[in-house]
Amino acid sequence: MRNLNYCNINLIDYKEAWDLQKDVLEARSNNLIDDTFFLLEHYNTYTLGRVADKKHLISSDSFLKLNKISVYEIDRGGDITYHGPGQIVGYPVINLSDWQKDTHKYLRALEEVIIKTCDYYGIIAGRNNQYTGVWIENRKIAAIGIKVKKWVTMHGFAFNVNTNLSLFKGIIPCGIDDKEVTSLNKELGKKIEIKEVKEILLRNFKEVFDYNKIKHINYDKFSLSAMNNTNN
């Protein structure tokens, strides 16, 4: 039986969530807890992955200050992207040894979770042969960047729901300068409840990764002991 801890967080500072992932990854690597999935939103942040070209951060200091945008160089794959309110970020910390030890299949599975979620809203989304992520024609609705250590994952996806897309203008998103960025809001012409989208993402994640049981963890009372796999 495969169990999944799920933790829903509203707005959280990027560094706080990054540190949290590191702790959870360590615990999962030592088999102290079950696979864990976080869905959350960040305050305005630009993150540069390990192979990011710093020239893709095209914001001026005044633009960063005006929009209260933090900048972090981090340990995931990929180039530069934006996180902010209205965008759902998913951080799965899961052991691929218990699923499939294949990072490419893992990336495609993350894409599938979002493709299925778009389908729920009547949007035909898919993949791009050149780039990771989820696309609606030539418009990118979700970025994906991961880290895998001893077959345990961290980082994940950023899915634009009600995102302020104007803040992508401060970067060359994922180093791609000839494609648009979009959101559910833009595609549907209306705002979508974040809570509702999270519920659909969680359902699709459970289905794609074949979990039997989900245990909900309250972040306000968060502790690794609350997720101990012996308590499930």
> Which architecture does the CATH hierarchy give at level 2?
2-Layer Sandwich
The low-confidence parts are: none
Strand content: 25-35%
Count structural domains.
1
Mean pLDDT: 93
What is the CATH top level name? Alpha Beta
CATH homologous superfamily descriptor: Bira Bifunctional Protein, Domain 2
Structure notes:
This protein has 232 residues and is an alpha/beta fold. It has one domain: BirA Bifunctional Protein, domain 2 (2-Layer Sandwich), CATH 3.30.930.10. Helices cover 26% and strands 29% of the residues. The chain has helices at residues 14-29, 61-66, 103-120, 184-188, 194-208; strands at residues 3-12, 35-42, 45-48, 70-73, 80-83, 87-93, 134-136, 139-149, 152-160, 180-181, 213-218. Strands 1, 2, 6, 7, 8, 9, 10 and 11 form an eight-stranded mixed beta sheet that branches. It has a three-stranded mixed beta sheet with strand order 4-3-5, with no helix packed on it. A hairpin with a 2-residue loop joins strand 7 and strand 8. The radius of gyration is 17 Å and the shape is globular. The termini are close together.
